[in-house]
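Hello again, I could really use a second opinion on something today. For a while now I've been wondering how a particular protein folds. Please have a think about how the structure follows from the sequence. Here's the protein in full, and shout if anything looks odd to you:

***
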Amino acid sequence: MVCDHYTWCGKHQIFPAISLKKTRLTQKSAKHRATWEAHKKAPFYKKALAMRYNVEAKVGEAKTQHGLRTTRDLGRRKCLVQSVMTFLAMHLKRILTLVQGPARSLRAAA
């Protein structure tokens, strides 16, 4: 199934940021192994992994600090609304931090 997504991305000129570990490179199928080896040698592989790290960090923050680990309501639309509102709040907090500057500690002000 992963290879199907990889093929779809290739047809649409999208470079997926799939992290390659030993388990992917030692698959039984020679066709899949060749595909993953070519992916690893691609020029954008390291850049894609760097971008993936940034995205994964924000999703992890949303899960651990903002309640996206479980949804409050059932249904695709309700989950979508909750995730959009969560990320909107995260972005607003980030914008306020950038506009106001880093928070000053009370000890530094004294």
User: Anything to note?
Assistant: The first helix runs from residue 2 to 11. The mean pLDDT is 79.
